[in-house]
Design brief:
Helix content is 45%, strand content 22%. The protein contains seven helices and seven strands, in the order ββαβββββαααααα. The strands form two sheets. A five-stranded mixed β-sheet has the order 1-4-3-7-2, with helices on one face. Strands 5-6 form a two-stranded antiparallel ribbon. A hairpin with a 5-residue loop joins strand 3 and strand 4.
């Protein structure tokens, strides 16, 4: 927990993350002090293919000035900057790579159950649901109930202000239609897939996933 930290800056990692470029940490923290930054975002390579190439990259707030942000959400937590404390920059000399252990034990539907409890709590509180809760409900439901996954993904993209993650949601929706997981006519599924891949390509031009998806669907459609 951050309240136990004693230094001016805090770096957070999960137990299955690997830090590359750690020799730059001191210099980055010095620059944070010079520039009065509250957070530094580092590249997070979350998934790799069988050759070790990155398939899914996000930028996450990794180095944080102590007291400038608090954790929110019970699953896939995110740091929420305190009012007036969101000054940040991206740094590319340091990368965090996710290395999930193959033998890691898991509790069936643990994340889904926790997310549903948080979803119900927020609805009872004021009726407003954090967009990231909607996103991760889509992520969990895509392996359990495709229609519910689409429901939460579509609600998420309608309200999210985070273009990078919104792009990943469009990719997820497109992939479900492309794989034939949604009970609609083939022509409609292909058009839906193409449209969502196209939005993803525009929202995250640095990633090839949207363009590659559009090309696959276009090739099938002839």
């Amino acid at each position: 927990m951050f309240e136990r930290a004693t230094g001016d800056f805090v770096l957070w990692l999960d137990s299955d993350d690997v830090l590359e470029g750690g020799e730059h940490l001191r210099a980055v923290c010095q620059q944070m002090e010079v520039k009065s930054l509250d957070q530094v975002f580092l590249a997070y390579d979350y998934a790799q293919d069988h050759l070790g190439r990155t398939r899914y990259r996000q930028w996450r707030e990794r180095i944080v000035r102590r007291g400038s942000a608090t954790w929110v959400n019970p699953i896939h937590e995110v740091l929420l900057p305190a009012p007036g404390r969101g000054r940040n920059e991206r740094v590319d000399q340091i990368i965090v790579r996710h290395r999930r252990k193959a033998d890691r034990a898991s509790i069936p539907n643990r994340n889904l159950k926790n997310l549903l409890r948080e979803y119900a709590r927020q609805q009872r509180q004021d009726g407003r649901v954090d967009p990231r809760v909607l996103f991760y409900l889509g992520q969990e439901y895509r392996f359990v109930d495709v229609q519910k996954a689409l429901h939460f993904y579509e609600r998420y993209v309608a309200v999210s202000g985070w273009g990078e993650e919104r792009s990943h949601a469009h990719i997820a929706i497109a992939s479900l239609y492309e794989a034939g997981c949604v009970a609609v006519p083939v022509e409609i599924a292909q058009q839906k897939a193409y449209d969502h891949f196209a939005v993803a390509a525009v929202e995250m031009p640095d990633s090839p996933d949207g363009l590659f998806g559009m090309a696959r669907v276009a090739q099938i459609r002839g």
